Amino acid sequence: MAEKSLSIKEGLDPLFNPRSVAVIGATNQWSKWGFSTYMSMLDGYKGKLYPINNKEDNVLGHRTYKKITDIPDKEPVDLAVFVIPAESIPAVMEECVVKGVRAGVIISAGFAEIGEEGKKLQDKVLNIAREGNIRFIGPNCMGFWSASSNTRAFMFPLTVCDGPFAFVSQGGNVGAIVVQGAYSMGMGFHRYVSCGCTADIQIEDYIEHFGNDPAVEVILAYIEGLNDGQRFIEKVRCVSEKKPVIVLKPGKTEAASRAILSHSGAMAGSSEIYGSAFKEAGVIRVDTADDLLDVAIGFKTQPLPRGKNVGIITPGGSYGVMSADACASLDLNVIRLSEETINQFDKIFPPRWSHGNPVDPAGDRNFIAYLKAPELLLKLKELDSLIFMGFDSFSYFASMFASMNENFTKTFEQLIQSLYTLVPTGALEEGQDNNSWMGQVVEKVIEIFFSLFGTAEREEGEVFAGKLISIIKSGEASSDLTKKLHEVVTSSSEKNGDESGEAFVRVFNPLMQALILNWIEIYGKPVLTTTFLGSAQSVSDIGYYAYSSSEQAAKVIAKLIEYREYLERKNVENA
Amino acid sequence: MAEKSLSIKEGLDPLFNPRSVAVIGATNQWSKWGFSTYMSMLDGYKGKLYPINNKEDNVLGHRTYKKITDIPDKEPVDLAVFVIPAESIPAVMEECVVKGVRAGVIISAGFAEIGEEGKKLQDKVLNIAREGNIRFIGPNCMGFWSASSNTRAFMFPLTVCDGPFAFVSQGGNVGAIVVQGAYSMGMGFHRYVSCGCTADIQIEDYIEHFGNDPAVEVILAYIEGLNDGQRFIEKVRCVSEKKPVIVLKPGKTEAASRAILSHSGAMAGSSEIYGSAFKEAGVIRVDTADDLLDVAIGFKTQPLPRGKNVGIITPGGSYGVMSADACASLDLNVIRLSEETINQFDKIFPPRWSHGNPVDPAGDRNFIAYLKAPELLLKLKELDSLIFMGFDSFSYFASMFASMNENFTKTFEQLIQSLYTLVPTGALEEGQDNNSWMGQVVEKVIEIFFSLFGTAEREEGEVFAGKLISIIKSGEASSDLTKKLHEVVTSSSEKNGDESGEAFVRVFNPLMQALILNWIEIYGKPVLTTTFLGSAQSVSDIGYYAYSSSEQAAKVIAKLIEYREYLERKNVENA
Question: In this predicted complex, what is the ipTM?
Answer without folding.
Answer: 0.87
